[in-house]
Amino acid sequence: MKTAFRQVTLATTPEAEAAVGELLHAVFGIAPSVFTHPEKRVPVVSVYLDEKKSVTRAQHQAVAEGMARIEKCGLAIGDWKLEVKRLRREDWVDSWKRHFQPIRIGDKLLVRPSWRKDKAAPGQAVVVLDPGLSFGTGQHATTKFCLRQLVAQRHNGKQSLLDVGTGSGILAIAGVKLGYRPVKAIDFDSEAVRVARENAKRNRVTAHLEPKVGDVTKLSPRARV
């Protein structure tokens, strides 16, 4: 188990958040996580590297060029700066425990961290997560939107689900809990798949879900959702 790692962060604007996340994903090959301060409303996009790895000059340049392209597309990027710092695992865990709050999607779904014991409403499916270093806690606006769509599109009948870039496994696990069958989850990041498998086990859905390492461009999975 890694005891420390490097946190690479870039603060931006709400409108550029998704584009910046894609940029860091492309440059570092690791799915990002996003935290938005509830008062400042400034999204901070982060990726986590092995402690022994450093951010190269080429990567700094790739980020700078990418941010320039994002701005040329008409998105306000703010006064950004790429920051790198060494972070102990316990510091990261304590940070998530402060900021990862339970999320309720109507009366159908509750997503909560493993260290919280919030009770579900009658008939409400529960997803318990420990995100590890992987993207996907439900705090991100895109993830919340996808969770709402999973609830909204679920009906009585067989519905298959494919979760590409599964991260923590949040969407795939929620899909199983809501009754989607079969459910497939893939990610090209082996660390993300490891975390997703642990979360699947934590939620007792391994009979219906086995996240796998894979590249969607090299596979031909099919699903209704």
Question: What would you say this structure looks like, in words?
Answer:
With 225 residues, this protein is an alpha/beta fold. The protein folds into two domains: 4-95, Alpha-Beta Plaits (2-Layer Sandwich); 100-218, Vaccinia Virus protein VP39 (Rossmann fold). The protein contains six helices and ten strands; from the N terminus they run E-H-E-E-H-E-H-E-E-E-H-E-H-E-H-E. The strands form three sheets. Strands 2-3-1-4 form a four-stranded antiparallel sheet, with helices on both faces. Strand 9, helix 6 and strand 10 (212-213) form a beta-alpha-beta unit. The mean pLDDT is 86.
Annotate the secondary structure layout.
Elements: E1 4-11, H1 17-28, E2 33-36, E3 43-50, H2 57-72, E4 82-88, H3 89-99, E5 103-105, E6 109-113, E7 125-129, H4 141-153, E8 161-164, H5 170-178, E9 183-187, H6 190-202, E10 212-213
Parallel strand pairs: 6-7, 8-9, 9-10
Antiparallel strand pairs: 1-3, 1-4, 2-3, 5-6
Overall mean pLDDT stands at 86
- CATH class term of the largest domain: Alpha Beta
Could you list the spans in which at least 5 consecutive residues all have pLDDT below 50? none
Shape: globular
The total count of strands amounts to 10
Beta-strand residue percentage = 15-25%
Features:
alpha/beta; single chain; 225 residues; globular; 2 domains; Alpha-Beta Plaits; three-stranded mixed beta sheet; four-stranded antiparallel beta sheet; Rossmann fold; 6 helices
Summarize the structure.
The protein is an alpha/beta fold and 225 residues long. The chain has helices at residues 17-28, 57-72, 89-99, 141-153, 170-178, 190-202, and strands at residues 4-11, 33-36, 43-50, 82-88, 103-105, 109-113, 125-129, 161-164, 183-187, 212-213.
